[in-house]
Amino acid sequence: xxxxxxxxxxxxxxxxxxxxxxxxxxxxxxxxxxxxxxxxxxxxxxxxxxxxxxxxxxxxxxxxxxxxxxxxxxxxxxxxxxxxxxxxxxxxxxxxxxxxxxxxxxxxxxxxxxxxxxxxxxxxxxxxxxxxxxxxxxxxxxxxxxxxxxxxxxxxxxxxxxxxxxxxxxxxxxxxxxxxxxxxxxxxxxxxxxxxxxxxxxxxxxxxxxxxxxxxxxxxxxxxxxxxxxxxxxxxxxxxxxxxxxxxxxxxxxxxxxxxxxxxxxxxxxxxxxxxxxxxxxxxxxxxxxxxxxxxxxxxxxxxxxxxxxxxxxxxxxxxxxxxxxxxxxxxxxxxxxxxxxxxxxxxxxxxxxxxxxxxxxxxxxxxxxxxxxxxxxxxxxxxxxxxxxxxxxxxxxxxxxxxxxxxxxx
Length: 411
Prior knowledge:
- The chain has helices spanning 3-26, 55-71, 75-90, 117-134, 137-153, 190-206, 210-227, 253-270, 273-294, 317-334, 337-354, 386-409, and strands spanning 53-54, 103-104, 110-112, 115-116, 165-166, 188-189, 238-239, 250-252, 304-306, 309-312, 315-316, 365-366.
- By secondary structure, the chain is mostly helical.
- It has a single domain (52-340), classed as Glycosyltransferase (Alpha/alpha barrel), CATH 1.50.10.10.
- The strands form 5 sheets. Strands 1-2-3 form a 3-stranded antiparallel sheet.
- The protein is globular and about 55 Å long.
- The protein starts with a helix and ends with a helix.
- 48% of the residues are buried.
């Protein structure tokens, strides 16, 4: 890719982030009646106030505006970050027992008081980013408090890793172990561990606590030895308490490519050169598999497969975002231009098919037949600005690095 092509790619990404994604989350998505952000908006911006306000999307909104403010300081981004910080700190926090509630109703009353570790991880991730952006002591203190609760009540000292769900008082939750209706009712999952890894990576950036370092090493080791299928180079999804695989050759390409760069990011903050080299080598091999098996003829990443056969050929927005980052990252590690081309093709698909030019933001999913899935909302407890914003920020950062290196070797 030439210098002009890299510049054009960067401009397209910047225009999308600052001219399209963020205006939506500063505008139609804000809930001016009940506070925070809307819990559910249809594609044509009709609110459904029967739907919940989830911990995940509100934490992701906090992360997004905190991260964007660091990239381009702006009074509006600070205002949005502060609004999100106030909402997650005061509305989601369980003062008697500690930790964050999973789900509120439209007015902010508690609907689900369980402590799902996936949600607690995103709470840490977002608070850490807010601290990175603004140096707010209460954010770091709360993030540390949640870390202690997770470690005390959800870490498996015998077999390693983390249990999925605890009750409000952090006791065992046998009958509510699933993260969502789509998930298996098992003790451990890849998805939970991927986002605990992500959260602890961000926490370690601001708090060089030896126990966080220790857990990051443990999590990377679990991905290498338990979660990654060494034969197929896909990630297993579900496990019992002793790490026996329960999901039988089912995998999602979006999680696979997302894990390639998040694992390397964790190894980078640990400043362990040998570990980083090992994780990077695996990351490139995993990216090769995703590129070979997951990409459709339109350049988009299909959703899911089982035992080598595509089981869901739909194109959801978040895997495309992760494909852009993951393939650029694979190019940075390998120098193989096919990865950079794949990243741009994924971005082309986002611009051409996923961007809603009428009402803003991205559609959730394009069906295997190539149509927008109109049954899925624009905003929900699972649909927020996190993947798109992060893809843009990471792409801009990585393309700058690539442009700098290529300029350095030009005559």
